[in-house]
Amino acid sequence: MGPQPDIIETPSPNFGPRKGGATPSLIVVHYTAMETATAALERLCDPLFEVSAHYLISAQGEIHQLVAEDMRAWHAGAGQWGDITDVNSHSIGIELDNRGDHPFAEPQMVALEGLLSDVRNRWSIPPQNVIAHADMAPDRKFDPGPRFDWCRLAREGLSVWPDADHDEAKDWHTLAQEFGYPDMPEAHAAFRARFRPWASGSVDQEDVRILSRLLSQV
Question: How far is CA 125 from CA 92, 128, 130, 149, 213, in A?
Answer without folding.
Answer: 10, 8, 8, 20, 20
